[in-house]
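SAMPLE LOG
Freezer: B-3
Tube label: C17
Construct: single chain, 96 aa
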Amino acid sequence: MLLAAPFPLPPQGVDPRAGLPKLRKPWVERREAKGVHASAGVTQMALARAGIISEEMAFVAAREGMDPEYVRSEVRVGSGRSSSGRGSRGWPVVYW
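STRUCTURE (predicted):
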């Protein structure tokens, strides 16, 4: 009989010294190739206010079954917050 661990198990097949794969890296590289850099203060909210649906917003919309424009509008006004903004290391997480 297999009992559940009292804590989440780490991802299998991942070297803890190397860390998780940088799955957002291509998104960030494409954005930076267009001259949009997080170091310049460009956040998900700034992109949303400029009318831009980032790849992170599109991912969240697809994952949550929402329209990307709705996600952008919620991030724009601060109702939806994505952890995939400047300095984030993980996958996009939206809190509603």
